[in-house]
Predict the structure.
Amino acid sequence: VLGLLVWALIADTTYHLHAAYGWVMFVSIFFWILTVLFFVAYLLQLQLKFYMIPWPLLLMIFNAAATVLYITAFVTCAAAVEPTSWRQWDYNRRAAASFFACLTMIAYGVSIFFSFRAWKGLGSNAATSQVTDHA
């Protein structure tokens, strides 16, 4: 949802006049589409059908790449906001897009942590630890 807000807010401005917003649009749309594809894959339980793919490692790499590129998109978007813009609604939308890009970057960063725990197997609960202790 946060990534959708970023590209929707930028798309509603005259972003084509500023080259910096092209990068922000690319990053936000690209990772929004990939995130939706991963979400659908998990809803369809494709990780069980394609068990040979290391899904936790793949998600950790995906989240790390998204975080790094969202850092660049956030900095680019925030630096390109012109507070003296003659179009006040563009300023408001671009500033809001910068804010949501920062939140999206933080969300992907937190997802790295949880993906790492899943990859290393640190996310077990009491029931699974009881079963593995006696087996």
